[in-house]
Amino acid sequence: MARLAIIALLVPVTVIILTWVERKVIGRLQMRLGPMRVGPYGTLQGVADTIKLLTKEDVRPQTADRWVFELAPFVIVVPVFMAVVAIPFTADLFIKNLTLGLFYFVAVTGLSIVGFVMAGWGSDNKYALLGGVRAAAQLISYEIPLVMAILAVAMLAQSLNLAVIVGAQEDTPNIAYQLLAFIIFAIAGLAELYRQPFDIPVAESEVVGGPFVEYSGIRWSMFQLGEFVNLVLISILGSLIFLGGWQWPWSVFDKSVPVAAQVAMMVVKTGAFILFFMWMRASLPRLRIDQMMSFCWQLLLPFAFLQIILNGLVLVYGWPNEILIPLSGAAAAGAVYLTHRAARATGVRYQPGYQTVGSVL
Amino acid sequence: MAIETRVPHESDLETIDINVNVGPQHPATHGVFRMVLTVDGELVVDLDPVIGYMHRGNEKLPENCDYRQVIGYHDRTDYLAQFNTEHCYVEAVEKLAGIKAPERAEYIRVILAEMNRIASHLMLFGAFGTDIGLFGTSFMYAFRDRETIQDLFEEVTGERMMYNYFRPGGVAWDLPDNFRQRCTQVLDSVERGVEQLDGLMMENEVVLARCRGLSPVTPEDAIKWGLSGPMLRATGLRHDIRRAEPYSIYDRLQFDVPTGKQGDVYDKLVVRLEEMHQSARIVRQALETMPEGPIMAEGLKRVLRVPAGEVYMRVESPRGEYGVYLVSQGSDKPWRHKVRGASFSNLSALRAMSVGNFVSDVIIILGSIDIVLCEVDR
Predict the structure, then answer these.
(1) Per the domain annotation, does B246 fall within a domain?
(2) Three-class SS of residue B316?
């Protein structure tokens, strides 16, 4: 219980810090300073925002479906916190080490979508409705490649226990053997977090925030809370199953790694993931919903199956894991090449034509 | 009792198209434009543009103003290309009154108008990036460079937005002393910035996937709808008023007219990107060959009376053909003052370009038209 309480307190604090970090990082990427006024270098901006959101009026549109509208934020936030329970942060620091931890995580995070559809429907707003339906369409597209990529890792570790999966990466992290699965996981993770180029359900310039358009104050901040906790969760999961979690590379500490060093390693790896997601947000435009779906179904999913087949061959014939390094790497290169080519399918950029004198009209 | 189980067929389900009102307050409508989309899921089956929220009588008001007072209204029609619009108006008055502006004034006008074209296209690229989902990054990069141009304009005119600097017969006052050096400096940094924008936007896989082949326009349709400017040139037609009917000193400047191939959204962007380089080329030439001398025609009266007659003057503004039609009855005020806004004609093609595309695409099609609502409604 003590652990649960600590985590429940730590999570909102982390989120407050992360909102500040995101605004700073994106500000720097856009040649701005980001928040600078509240506290030194704007460090208290997150606190100020939280106080503002908590004290705002909680507005509900008159025509909204009352219970659906008011419950939607909880349906989004609760599964996210349920997923936190199953995540080990270091070898000893966890709430509950489930044998089926990975399975539980995937199953629980998928529930959030109900909240999005509820918010979209209950708001009685057409932008929200479009956003909610988009969120549902997006979920069925990215969820399967995401699960397949995770499954590939579980195959290699022969376990669904996150601690065991991390333990199996003592020598080499999975990213070396499973480069293809890692890339698919990162892309599907972007889609799971509704970040560019997959921020289709909440597209600011199209549906003006999508399902959240009618929410304000505390309910809106619950969506935000869910989004940021999800960001941390996906980042932690990625560093656990692909980057070797709390393990130090090249066996810096012989056998017993101090807890502080384990935590530091987790923070570094998770931070790398989080920065990647923020970086993508500032540098990529948005895909169209049908392009996103065909990308997930036609490209990510077959390649995720390819990784599983490769892993299966290694397991069945007892080949050494090292053979996966060139195979998965080559497949990843193929996937990147196909994406590159698909985007340019309508032809290469040409040099514009010129005329110096006269007009054809 | 047997329970009837049957998989519902598509024809059993009753679906309705819904109307989605986009604007006048919406992040993607670039001002107070409103469009009513009829959507079938994500597909736009009809679009009804509603304009008029920005109507301020910009055509009627000048009819009660002195010829020199009208210049201010032209700053306010197309507030992103003020020098181009002022240029059009003062050339029209000069044509009607038979005034010849001195050589140096013409050079100053062309330099400022071309710099303004770069600033306007930068604004388009910034806003287009936001439309297509870039989280403000292209906006900040484009505005960094636009800001340097605006600083330059402020040094020249004392204003950041409503310059009111050109006059019938010349310009209000001469350029600052170090203008040539400052302008070259600004051009260098802006061209570097344009290269960066090019790298950020045009080679991006997502932009390619979104914009290539989106709502292509044929040259025939473009002429039928009365498109002009980059919208027309993107279809492959080489029509630029600076070349077709050279005004001012454009006939002695070397520059190319970039054209696209299929008139899709991507072509419209490429054409504008290339135009920025061509404008920079024009400014560099004009800076080199700019003569010294007077900046105002001799012997103009304090009250400018224009002989009776009518005139239509058109210039190539960043958005296309900007025209001014003036009728004078010999008094100190124009009797009729009509403005042809390029945005208005370009916007008229929105419905035809959008129907059959997705909601997300309609947003970027609208963005690629590069409308200025003040010019649409006037």
Answers:
(1) yes
(2) strand
- Give the residue from chain A lying closest to B25, CA to CA: A208
Token duo for residue A18 = 């992360």
> DSSP character for A42?
G
User: Considering only CB atoms, which chain A residues are within 8 Å of B250?
Assistant: none
Q: What is the CATH number of the domain that holds B154?
A: 1.10.645.10
Is the minimum CB–CB distance between B85 and chain A shorter than 8 Å?
Answer: no
Who contacts B343 (Cβ-Cβ below 8 Å, separation ≥6)? B78, B319, B320, B369, B370, B371, B372, B373, B375, B376
Nearest chain A CA: its distance from B273 CA (Å): 10
Has residue B242 been placed in a domain?
A: yes
Summarised one tens digit per residue, pLDDT across range B194-243 is 998 888 888 888 888 888 888 888 888 888 888 998 999 888 888 888 88
B336 touches chain A (CB under 8 A): no
What residue type is B330 in one-letter code?
A: G
**Nearest CA to CA, how far is B10 from chain A (Å)?**
18
CA distance A31 to chain B (A): 7
Residues 179-218 of B with CB under 8 A from A: 200, 202-210, 212-213
Residue B2 lies in a domain: no
Which structural domain, as residue segments, surrounds residue B340? 15-377
Domain count, chain B: 1
| CA–CA gap between residue B114 and residue B276 (Å, rounded) | 9
Tens digits of residue pLDDT in B55-72: 888 888 989 988 888 998
Asked whether B77 and B341 are in contact (CB, 8 A), the reply is: yes
A352: nearest CB among B39, B210, B274:
B274
